[in-house]
Specification:
The chain is of the alpha/beta class. It has helices at residues 6-17, 55-63, 88-94, 114-120, 131-137, 139-147, 177-187, 197-203, 251-254, 264-273, 285-293, and strands at residues 31-35, 41-46, 71-76, 99-104, 124-127, 151-159, 192-196, 223-227, 246-249, 278-283, 299-305, 330-338, 341-348. It has an eight-stranded mixed beta sheet, with helices on both faces. A five-stranded mixed beta sheet has the order 2-1-3-4-5, sandwiched between helices. It catalyses: 2,5-diamino-6-hydroxy-4-(5-phosphoribosylamino)-pyrimidine + H2O + H(+) = 5-amino-6-(5-phospho-D-ribosylamino)uracil + NH4(+); 5-amino-6-(5-phospho-D-ribitylamino)uracil + NADP(+) = 5-amino-6-(5-phospho-D-ribosylamino)uracil + NADPH + H(+).
């Protein structure tokens, strides 16, 4: 087997980390590759689920004695605390690893500090290898831990002229089955799905992650959150079924903002305390406008169908923009065709001041 560079090994570790997306929260996704003393791959692993073995432990078990004198290439700084599992720093030191190569440092004050522990034990540590890619692969967790509220993705579906429904209120289906399958896969990667009570009253959605072809539910379901200022969600609404956990978030419980509705920053802080690190905002246009006006959206994923309606509700309501100079500017990061539709991924630009 040919030797590989630490740069190549980090690229592989980043790919491995992605396999844990949607199942590790409130822990991060992490990948690890162990190179033996000759630079050949001796073991690899990823963190698969919260409470399970960390990526380094899986990779070390696979490497066995070949880890001694070798290099551990890991997407995130090895943890340095005992939680449901022991510290990965200790495992790496005991295995005799000579060098640890890290993509990004751990911002968690409880688990961080692994670099110092490794160096104190005589392990060489190199940080920042493929840092931008390692950061991007774990952006939701890293962002949420740094600021202590979840990473927010706004998802919408619209026609090419920006309509979310026809004038008679019909909206099934604006986008194709391929796009809807893609949305269900997206739901499976987040910790919570958020809608407003208006969406529940109008559409009675399930908000579960499932296989559209046979109706089977995904193994892991996100928390269903209904932002319902006055408690209008019907007792028989489908979001109240037993398919997944549901939180009807009212102003009385969460707190009210200046407009008397649910205080959105308080809602996100409460979701973080419940273990949510990434959330999917699915509707409707009024709630989306409120999140955008408050600067609470981190990423936008829009599914645009090759249809025109010319009239009807728009995908986005008032977002606090009253003149073109105040428009919310976006950076497009990906445009992909999904069936006949386009999936547009964009990041809102940070505003000065």
């Amino acid at each position: 087997m040919a030797s590989v560079s630490t740069d190549e090994a980090m690229r592989r570790a980043i790919d491995l980390a992605a396999r844990g997306l949607g199942t590790t929260s409130p822990n991060p996704v992490v990948g690890c590759v162990i190179l033996d003393a000759d630079g050949e791959i001796a073991g690899e692993g990823f963190h698969a689920y919260a409470g399970g073995p960390h990526a380094e432990i899986v990779a070390l078990a696979q490497a066995g004695d070949r880890a001694k004198g070798g290099t551990a290439v890991v997407t995130m700084e090895p943890c340095d605390h005992t939680g449901r599992t022991g510290p990965c720093t200790r495992a790496l030191i005991q295995a005799g690893v000579a060098t640890v190569v890290i993509g990004v440092n751990d911002p968690n004050p409880i688990a961080g500090g692994g670099t110092a522990t490794l160096r104190a034990a005589g392990v060489e540590v190199e940080s920042g290898v493929r840092a931008a890619e390692a950061e991007a692969a774990n952006i939701a967790w890293l962002t949420s831990v740094r600021r202590e509220w979840p990473y927010v993705i706004w998802k919408y579906a619209a026609t090419a002229d920006g309509r979310s429904a026809a004038t008679d209120g019909t909206s099934m289906w604006i986008t194709s089955e391929a796009a809807r399958i893609d949305v269900h896969a997206l739901r499976g990667t987040v910790d919570a799905v958020i809608v407003g009570s208006g969406t529940v009253l109008a559409d009675d959605p399930r908000l579960t992650a499932r296989n559209l072809r046979d109706g089977t539910l995904a193994i892991r379901q996100p928390l269903r959150v209904v932002v319902d200022s006055s408690g209008r969600t019907p007792a028989d609404a489908r979001v109240r079924d037993a398919a997944a956990r549901t939180w009807i978030a009212t102003s009385a419980e969460v707190g009210a903002g200046p407009d008397g509705r649910v205080d959105l920053p308080a809602l996100l802080a409460a979701l973080y305390q419940r273990g949510a690190r990434s959330v999917l905002l699915e509707g409707g246009p009024t709630l989306a406008g409120s999140f955008l006006a408050a600067g609470l959206v981190d990423k936008i994923i829009g599914y645009v169908a090759p249809k025109l309606l010319g009239a009807g509700p728009t995908a986005l309501a008032d977002a606090g923009v009253h003149t073109i100079a105040d428009a919310i500017d976006l950076d497009f990061v990906d445009i992909t065709r999904v069936g006949p539709d386009l999936r547009i991924t964009a990041l809102p630009r940070k505003r000065e001041g």
